[in-house]
Amino acid sequence: MPLLETNLPNKLYQGKVRDTYDMGDGMLLMVATDRISAFDVVLPNGVPDKGRVLSQMSKFWFDQTGQIVPNHFIALADDPEGLGDLVNHPIIKTLPPEIARQATVIKRAERIDVECVVRAYLTGSALVDYNQTGTIFGIPVPPGLVDGSKLPELLFTPTTKAEVGHDEPMTIDEVSAMVGADLAVKLRDLSFAIFQYAHDVAAERGIIIADTKFEFGIRDREVILIDEVLTPDSSRFWEGTQYAPGKSQPNYDKQFVRDWLLTQPWDRTPPAPALPDDIIEKTRERYLEAYRRLTGQALP
Ligand SMILES: Nc1ncnc2c1ncn2[C@@H]1O[C@H](COP(=O)(O)OP(=O)(O)OP(=O)(O)O)[C@@H](O)[C@H]1O
Ligand SMILES: [Mg+2]
Fold first, then answer.
1. For 146, which DSSP code?
2. What percent of the chain has a predicted confidence (pLDDT) above 90?
3. Minimal CB count within 10 Å: which of 21, 27, 175, 216?
């Protein structure tokens, strides 16, 4: 059964996918549910195992990128070794196993309200903008690029974190105006460094990370990496062997869901239509496969 809703005490925030609880002492419990969103709308069905994949994959990357930038990760909520004394924390002690297995204990941070998007390949909203303007959100790029073209260099294309509706592109100057020039440059450089590291790890496993989104926060006056990291929900993963520019690439995210929704008479406002079982199963298999390919192991 997919985990669609959680109702523990001290709920702080319910996002499209994650439910966040205050554990006190500057810690949060973040439950990655099995909810799935498309076109910014949460769908009525869940995808079994999706929350576990998101939690475990973020941990995989947090473990490896800690030398580049500190992060919010403390422990998976079902990992006694990682938790240490926190096993006796009232929330953890009473946490049902079906929630614990897809939840993470994290350090609470003051969120920086910028989505730090890094792109190595042209697709999605950047492609739409390129076809209209010949630039990528104002950044000059060569002519003649097509869907899936590798960009000459990594691009930083930040967006707002909209409370409702879609996130809007921001220029680096707009980020500077919001958070200060030094922090803006730091966010960009950290985003590039994490992306480049992960891109190289994934490439060895035959996966192309086309683009991704990072979030950062401030904790003890230090910039830390927060939220989820390099998951199929926050990134585009492409199959290396099938990569060919000039078309949309076979990938590891919600493509089946989006493609199916596009065949439906639906105006992209809630409620979304329920997904057929085979679309759910194919999507579940894609999430599990992404985990296997990137980590080299089956989901524990
Ligand atoms: N360490 C942290 N401290 C504080 N907030 C965090 C931390 N890590 C992640 N968050 C926030 O928790 C929320 C996670 O929920 P989720 O991603 O499901 O929301 P969402 O629907 O995508 O909405 P949003 O646009 O706010 O991300 C996000 O708002 C994210 O910014
Ligand atoms: Mg989010």
1. -
2. 94
3. 27
**Tokens in use for 131?**
């076809």
Q: Is the domain defined by 11-108 classed in CATH 3.40.50.720?
A: no
**Neighbour count for residue 258 (Cβ, 10 Å):** 11
Residue 3 CA to residue 35 CA, distance in Å, equals: 7
Residue type, 265: P
User: What is the rounded CA–CA span in Å between residue 159 and residue 77?
Assistant: 31
- The dotted CATH code for 111-253 is 3.30.470.20
pLDDT band at 40 (very low <50, low <70, confident <90, very high): confident
- Give the residue, by CA position, lying nearest to ligand 1 atom 9: 227
Q: How far apart are CA 104 and CA 18, in angstroms?
A: 11
Q: At what angle do helices 277-295 and 255-262 cross, to 10 degrees?
A: 150
Tell me the CA–centroid distance for residue 227 and ligand 1, in Å. Answer: 6
